[in-house]
Write the structure tokens for this entry.
Amino acid sequence: MKSFFSKFKNLLLIGAYKTLVIFEKLTNKGIALDFISKDYIDNPYKTYNLMRSHKPILFSQTTRLHWVTKMEFAQEMLRDKRFSVDDRKYPIAEKRRKEFKKAGREIMLEQFENPSMLKLDPPDHSRIRKLVQYGFTNRYITSLEPEIKKIVEDCLDKVHNQDSFDLIEDLAKPLPAIVIAKMMGLPNEDLDQFQAWSEDLLVGVGGIGTSKEDIKKSGDAYEALIRYFEEIILSRKNSPGDDFIGKLIQAEEEGDKLNIKEMYGTCLLLLIAGHETTTRLIGNGMFTLFNHQDQMMHLKNNYDLIPNAIEEMLRYEPPVHATVRFAENDMIYDGKTYKRGTPFAVSIAGANRDPEANANPNEFDILREDIKHISFGYGPHMCIGASLARIESRIAFESLFERF
């Protein structure tokens, strides 16, 4: 009986969603952001292009967000202090709090009230980022290259004699998890459990139609990781070591230090962000190359082009399609009035295909010059691990081309 009511509820939700899609098409000259339609799944960029042509800031009934698909506006919202990332300040926060309490997720509620720098505005964001960046100096990240190369080779050694293998499961997923674990100085015997938690966590991060089972699995992994980091960090307070967690413990700027909850949030943020960038960049990049065989061969014959090709992959098929900002106060933007707390979906994927930013934006070209993209963010929230993701992806593509 419970299963029957669950299916009935899902049918009602899908019906309501489809009604919103119809209404959106009526109000936007046939244009709607329909995440579950075959057209959108096959080619979301067509929808983003239509949205931009109609209105560079378009309200979507299906998401209740104002979608920004113009590069100029997207960059401005990502750098302008008039737009906030701290959702604790706005009405959506109460809904989140109620959801955590109802699900008995006290640890997740506590972290929601003490977010990572990803969900903080200046000056709190600036303070934490300044302390965290000690663990992301160019010198340190570059020094990891031999270790990253070994991890990639170990992953590929396991599948080298097989007729086929799953690029995501066998390389793109484990690579960033293992790199981050080693950066943090986690014990080798914990790597398998750490990687399993990492994968479970990402099951419930962003995605239309995520099942209740996956959401629970993701929540369980989230809380397990917080407890794990708590144990690791507290055990190393008196003897930090020279790895990333050690650098976090020792990080100090003008007498300021990260508090314990900020450390947990930072560790979890690096884990999630590292997966979203590197895993999807390798997967999307290789998929795109398979669909552009001439450029694949050109790249295989000239490894010097790989860094530029990676930037084009990031632009053409970004790992993350959108990020949210809120109007800090009542405001007028692009001639329209928005109330405090109005949510905007900054469409990274849409802005990357803006013809005013990149000529012939729907063409994939590894020789493209002056590539403009916001796939690693823009402004104060620019991805702190961007250089690490670039190095991991470059080494992964070089090794794949060498072996296969």
Q: What stands out?
A: The longest strand covers residues 322-327. The domain at 64-403 is CATH 1.10.630.10 (Cytochrome p450). The chain has one domain: 64-403. The chain has a mean pLDDT of 90.
